[in-house]
Amino acid sequence: MVGKFLLQRNIIKIGIPLVGVPLFVGLNYYSTRAVGAHAREIFRDDARIIELAGKLSERTRHPHLLPWVAMIIILADGRSTDQETFLLKHLVQQLRERHQVEDEEFAAAIAFDPLEVWRRVQAEPGDKSDLVDAAEAVAAVDGVSNRKEQRAIADLTARCW
User: Fold this and answer.
1) Pair 140, 133: CB distance under 8 Å
2) Pairwise CA distance, residues 2 & 39, whole Å
3) Mean pLDDT along residues 38-50
4) Spatial distance between the Cα atoms of 73 and 53, rounded to a whole number of angstroms
5) Which residues of 93-116 are buried (b: 16+ CB within 10 A; e: fewer)?
6) Which residues does 129 contact at the CB level (< 8 Å), separation at least 6?
7) Does pLDDT of 68 surpass 80?
8) Torsion of CA 66, 71, 74, 76, to 10 degrees
């Protein structure tokens, strides 16, 4: 009986580390790879959005209207995703740096009235196709644009011509 007890104790004493260490090394390796892949995906998406904000800022001929149009497209479906919010933040920052656009009215706005934005767009002379292109890019930043965003883009297109 004492021999059986000592044998069980030694098997447990040696067996648990023998099985546990490789098991936990494997789990640690797998979880580290999964976390790394997820972080790489997030940082790649953030870099894509920052690059898009820079391109939109660079290409626009109407830097004072661009944040207004972007906000209307973002709010068209009644919700804003993290990607859309991140894009708007970097778009405003790029417009400030590249075009010295400081729109206090935009910064202070709480509720965005589409009719007010459309009035601003219609009051602007010249070709406004850059705003339509920017609106399409903003709508697609979080994936495929939905019907409400497409309707807002169609309204913008109608008011630009």
Assistant:
1) no
2) 54
3) 96
4) 15
5) ebbeeeeebebeebeeeeeeeeee
6) 160
7) yes
8) -110
- pLDDT tens readout for residues 49-66: 999 999 999 999 999 999
Residue 159 tokens, joined: 């008011």
Joined together, the tokens standing for residue 33 give 């790879």
Task: Count how many Cα atoms sit within 13 Å of the Cα of residue 50 in the half-sphere of its side chain.
Answer: 6
DSSP 8-class letter at 97: H
> What tokens were used for 125?
């002379």
Contact 93, 53 (CB under 8 A): yes
How many Cα atoms are found within 13 Å in the side-chain-facing hemisphere of 66? 31
pTM above 0.85, yes or no: no
Kindly report, residue by residue over 139-154, the tens digit of the pLDDT.
999 988 899 999 999 9
Q: Any idea what DSSP says for residue 11?
A: H
3-class SS letters over 57-78: HHHCCCCCCHHHHHHHHHHCCC
Q: Could you tell me which residues come within 8 angstroms of residue 73 by beta carbon, excluding any fewer than 6 positions away? A: 135, 138, 139, 149, 152, 153, 156
